[in-house]
Amino acid sequence: MTEKIGVLGKKSAQRTQRSGVERVVNAPLPTVYGEFRAIGYLDHDRGDEQVALVYGEIGTDRVLTRLHSECLTGDAFGSQHCECGDQLAAALRAVVAEGSGIVVYLRGHEGRGIGLLAKLRAMALQAEGLDTVEANLALGLPVDARDYGVAAGMLHDLNVRSVRLMSNNPRKREALVEHGIEVAEQVPLLIPPCENNITYLRTKRERLDHHLPHLDAVGQLS
What we know:
Number of helices: 9
Order of helices and strands: HEEEEHHEHHHHEHEH
Structural class: alpha/beta
Number of strands: 7
Shape: globular
Radius of gyration: 20 Å
Distance between the termini: 77 Å
Strand content: 15-25%
Strand order of the largest sheet: 1-2-3-5-4-6-7
Largest sheet: 7 strands, mixed
């Protein structure tokens, strides 16, 4: 009898195991950009805690939206190796200027999904002359391991059907469409390059198909 109960208990646990994204909390978040709502989610599939910063009354269609991949070095430390921190700030300012919008901050996306320590190892290889794609491959890692299914799930939960997507990355658009979110417009989020990130940005354009037309006007920085 005890063995049977144990088996039934396992089956019951399997039936109750959750998947997908679950809204957990909605809290006011005053920032230097404006008063947002921080809507926290749990990704049951990966175990990551996620957050959508919502400004104003967003509606359902053509919502100005940014999917921002976590970047500790850029977002928190102001690294000039990438443009991530500036893009995050620009996106937050843009939704405030618009009067409404969403910035989905995607944790677990550090280093295009390879993690913080691997990203730092890749940065060390880039300092030796490899580009960002070559560095990941040299470490035996994927060039881009990010998944945007959780972002789409969060947008679905917020009743968003279509977005004006602030991004230069065509893969983000493709991923949202694949997960049932219409991309009515792709809005460029172009940050002026500096000496420390111009090579990185050119690699993103030439090898990762990012739309960065402003680099055409930039000569060799030194």
